[in-house]
């Protein structure tokens, strides 16, 4: 989730391992309403034949980090928005692998795969952006979308851009910042369930460079600070690490990631 290129604020050291945590808050973004998105061609695992959907009645919001048009519109994404304890840019451009596979495309693909699996299990699923060619929405707007839907769980999908020597994934949980105080504990349960399922389902290790045992807590991400429903971020791997990048660039492995995330969300909601 570290960012680079035009129209971004660069991370300043390891302490900001997920630089702005790609949020996507809103404002006047063209993607400020929940999206019904196109599902990737790879078939999701879904619900096994003969098994009743287990998430019927649950509302899940998936937040694919960044957006494909962000870099071309610094006037939109650099606008400051209030995140509960200060101001940050509306959104960021994200990172990429050394071969040029961008985070925004990765998060969009995984989000759609995850949505397909969850819908097959009976859940109502909304995405915070409609496509991978738009701008934003701002991180605050992304939180507002989930709040307005009274989501049972929110998963914000990202990829990190840390030093190439670091590898692995981590889940970011909220610290209490005003209005989100009531969702800190349930978000912690969601984070732990997602961590356990992702580690088991993908075989990827917890990050070697941030957090502890695959979990981190932060108070500087608007998507978490402004949430009134259980919400976490997942940094699916480090795009600057060759091994992680190879996995994230594989469609088959992205399906594995989505299946694992669906298991984690299901474990939290059941």
- Number of E-state strands: 8
Average predicted confidence as pLDDT = 87
Q: Biggest β-sheet, characterized?
A: 6 strands, mixed
Helix content: 25-40%
What is the CATH superfamily classification?
Zn-dependent exopeptidases
GO molecular function, one term: N-acetylmuramoyl-L-alanine amidase activity
Protein name: N-acetylmuramoyl-L-alanine amidase
InterPro entries: MurNAc-LAA_cat, N-acetylmuramoyl_amidase_3
Keywords: Hydrolase, Signal
What does this protein structure show overall?
With 270 residues, this protein is an alpha/beta fold. It has a single domain, classed as Zn-dependent exopeptidases (Aminopeptidase, 3-Layer(aba) Sandwich). The protein contains seven helices and eight strands; from the N terminus they run E-H-E-E-H-E-H-E-E-H-E-H-E-H-H. It has helices spanning 74-77, 103-120, 139-149, 184-202, 222-225, 242-248, 251-269; strands at 59-64, 80-82, 87-89, 124-127, 153-160, 170-174, 215-218, 231-238. The strands form two sheets. Strands 4-1-5-8-6-7 form a six-stranded mixed sheet, sandwiched between helices. Strands 2-3 form a two-stranded antiparallel ribbon. Helix 2 (103-120) crosses helix 7 (251-269) and helix 4 (184-202) crosses helix 7. The longest helix is centred in the C-terminal third of the chain and has 19 residues, at 184-202. The two termini are 29 Å apart. The model is unreliable at 3-33 and 36-44 (pLDDT under 50).
């Amino acid at each position: 989730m570290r960012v680079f290129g035009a129209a971004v604020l660069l991370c300043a050291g390891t302490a900001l391992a997920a630089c702005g945590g790609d949020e996507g808050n809103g404002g006047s973004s063209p993607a400020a309403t929940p999206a019904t998105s196109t599902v990737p061609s790879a078939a999701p695992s879904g619900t096994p034949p003969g098994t009743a959907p287990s998430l019927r009645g649950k509302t899940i919001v998936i937040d694919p980090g960044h957006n494909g048009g962000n870099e071309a519109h610094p006037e939109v994404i650099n606008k400051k928005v209030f995140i509960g304890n200060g101001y940050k840019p509306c959104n960021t451009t994200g990172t990429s692998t050394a071969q040029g596979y961008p985070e925004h495309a990765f998060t969009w693909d995984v989000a759609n795969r995850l949505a397909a699996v969850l819908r097959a299990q009976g859940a109502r699923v909304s995405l915070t952006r409609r496509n991978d060619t738009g701008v934003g929405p701002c991180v605050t707007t992304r939180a507002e979308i989930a709040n307005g839907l009274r989501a049972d769980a929110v998963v914000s999908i990202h990829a990190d851009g840390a030093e190439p020597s670091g590898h692995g994934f981590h889940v970011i949980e909220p610290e209490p910042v005003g209005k989100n105080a009531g969702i800190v504990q349930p978000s912690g349960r969601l984070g732990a369930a997602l961590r356990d399922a992702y580690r088991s389902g993908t075989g990827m290790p917890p990050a070697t460079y941030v957090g502890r045992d695959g979990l981190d807590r932060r108070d500087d991400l608007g998507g978490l600070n402004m949430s009134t429903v259980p919400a976490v971020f997942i940094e699916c791997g480090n795009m600057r690490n060759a091994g992680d990048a190879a996995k994230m660039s594989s469609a088959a492995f992205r399906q594995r990631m989505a299946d694992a995330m669906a298991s984690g969300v299901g474990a939290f909601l059941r």
